[in-house]
Amino acid sequence: MYIAIVDYDQDNRVTKYQDYKTQAEADAHVTRVLGKYPKAFTALDPGGGFSSWLVDPIAKTVSNTPHVETQEEKDNKLKVEKDFQRMKEAVLNVTLSWAGLENSMAFLLDRIISRSNYQFGFAIYFAVASADARFNIINKAIVELFEKQKNTGNLLTKEDSNRLFDIWRTLFSALKDVKGNRNTITHGNILPIRKGKSSKQHVRLTPPMFHLDMMKQWSEPQLPGMSINDVEQTAKRINELCGVLVLLSMIVTYIDASDAPTLLKIIGQLEDRLQTITGP
Hints:
- 59% of the residues lie in helices and 13% in strands.
- The chain has 8 helices and 7 strands.
- The protein has helices at residues 23-33, 71-113, 120-125, 131-152, 158-186, 212-218, 228-256, 260-278, and strands at 2-8, 14-20, 41-44, 53-56, 61-64, 189-193, 202-206.
- Helix 2 (71-113) crosses helix 4 and helix 5 runs antiparallel to helix 7.
- The radius of gyration is 30 Å and the shape is rod-shaped.
- The mean pLDDT is 86.
């Protein structure tokens, strides 16, 4: 048996080949592909699987020489195993944190519309299947509340009323951003990825293999998908936003109580918290 070695990598390991019964057939194949694969040549089949074939580029021969893992490769394999576990824990943390954020949003809605022990807000919020729709319900409700407070003009100045709208715009934008990351994480899969000629693998959370976003990312220089740090930071931000939503619910309470001093104090706290979370 003869083989047409079409291409091999920087470690002289075969990456593309075709086997033939005769040397003439293998030579003909090499002739056809030489324009595209200038390293192509014909050799005797050394036996074994092609993953163990080692090319001698000078002698134009191939030997059956199984790869022996280096210490660096062993270390990388161990790191990949640990990173897999860390990524799974990070994904789980995002999922569990998201439930808390949704509960905080429902509590906010309930605080806006309920004036009794009946939790109508929770019933309305979770009756809607789409997170986008649920978020929009909150947006409409909070804007209406702030507009009503501003138009009465007897609790806060116009300037302080506008601070409430600025707080909500910033918070709502952050909520939509983190929702996008959460959706990516929920529908992603964990893969060890190697790009280019490097032998090192990196654990990433990616879209499905044949998703258009994934195929586009593979054509870009950077590694596709999200890193472990990206996922961990998403969980952290979700938890931080839950705390901000609790403060916002307190805003509703003190608007109802017409307690301007406490209301202004909480507005300041909200501005500080959002500055820390979202930056300048």
